[in-house]
Amino acid sequence: xxxWLEPHDRYWRRISSKMHSHLxxxxxxxxxxxxxxxxxxxxxxxxxxxxxGCNDIKREVNRCLSGERQKKSRKNRETGMERRARIEAVWDxxxxxxxxALERFTKRE
Length: 109
Description:
Keywords: Chaperone, Disulfide bond, Membrane, Mitochondrion, Mitochondrion inner membrane. It is found in: Mitochondrion inner membrane. This is COX assembly mitochondrial protein. The protein is an all-alpha fold. The chain has 5 helices and no strands.
């Protein structure tokens, strides 16, 4: 009767092997297991999703991805602060009249 809701439908498998393929990257390897669990939950069918059967797993995925994003942001912030410190050191030397630091800095980058 409700054949179109079957989770093992051939059409469903053909549509997508991974729901959010842009999230299945090397940066989110720690979240891979949870994302696969969400994919399996969604494969159970529309009604299961509609009544909130996958909400807990979705919250776990969001929490995991948020943690990964925060790690990446922290790393980028530290890299930026180091870069800024190097630039300011070059500017200080330039204020003293030593432009050789600028040449070394540009060759380093």
